[in-house]
Every structure is written in structure tokens, then in C-alpha cells.
Amino acid sequence: MFGINGWEIVLLALIAVFVLGPERLPEYAQKLAQMIKKARVMAEGAKGQLKDQLGPDYEDINWRQYDPRQYDPRRIVREALVEPLEDAASTLKSGGTNDDIGEVSAFGGERPWIQQDPVAWDPMRPTPYDVDAT
Predict the structure, then answer these.
(1) Is 52 helix (H, G, I), strand (E, B) or coil?
(2) To the nearest whole number, what is the mean pLDDT of the chain?
(3) Residues 111, 105: contact at Cβ < 8 Å?
(4) Do the beta carbons of residue 50 and residue 58 sit within 8 Å?
(5) Could you report the per-residue pLDDT of 64-85, keeping only the tens digit for each?
(6) Taking the model in full, what pTM does it have?
(7) Buried b (16+ CB within 10 A) or exposed e, 118-132
């Protein structure tokens, strides 16, 4: 909850007691309780409105897939780093073309600089042009 642990909540409560004083503390505690009740009513209203708008499809929704606690950031980063490498490797294996995006050539149709081994370094071969990188 907002990155606040139990001890910090206790500390905030003690500061509130000292700042507000015993005269005004019950009034502000009552206002806080009313705000929490209003927030709950608003959340239930939004949930009911969503249920009405979606109709029978509401029961088919898998709400667990939208829970951010289930996602492992390490797995997401690992997958994001591996996918581009696999795409680049498939592009190199296919001789510089990728069927998904089409062929991009900076010098026209002929490409005499493509060798049998596309990984080998050749100083005479121009640098590949990447449309997405510019």
C-alpha cells in the first residue's frame, strides 16, 4: 500500500495525534472514515457499471491476468531481450531479409556484398540500414 509499512503508519498516526491534538482528532477520524466509505461505494458503482456494460461477457473475463502481482519483471526483461536476438538471428540466417517486414535495401535491388556467411565482417560491405532505428 503506497510503499508504507506498519511502523510508518504508526509513526504517521502519532504525528497526526500531536499535530491535530485531542480536540480535533475525533472530527478528522470521522472524516477519514467517511472518505473510505465513499471510496468503497464509488468502487462498487464502477464495478456494477462495468458489469452492466459488458453484459454476459463479464463472467468470461479472467481478472487474474490483469493482476500486476503475478508478473515477474525478470522474466519480462529476459523475454524482451531474447525476442530481438532471435529475430536478428533469423534475419542473418536468411541472408539479410525478413519475410515479416520485407526487404530493405539502401542501394536498390542488387546486393553483391552479401556473402555466404553473413556473420563474417567485411569492410567493403555497407552498414545495414534499419528503418525502425531512425
Answers:
(1) helix
(2) 76
(3) yes
(4) yes
(5) 888 877 788 888 888 777 766 6
(6) 0.40
(7) eeeeeeeeeeeeeee
DSSP string, 55-98: GGGGGG--GGGG-GGG--HHHHHHHHHHHHHHHHHHHHHTTS--
Nearest Cα to Cα of residue 95 among 83, 84, 103: 103
Q: Output DSSP code: residue 131.
A: T
The cell numbers describing 38, all together, are: 465513499
What is the C-alpha separation between 80 and 40, in angstroms, rounded?
38
Single-letter residue type at 27:
E
**Which own/partner pairs from 102-106 qualify as long-range (CB within 8 Å, at least 24 positions apart)?**
104/129, 104/130, 104/131, 105/129
Report pLDDT digits (tens) over 37-53.
999 999 999 989 988 88
Q: How far apart are CA 1 and CA 3, in angstroms?
A: 5
Q: What is the mean pLDDT of residues 79-101?
A: 64
Contact 40, 48 (CB under 8 A): no
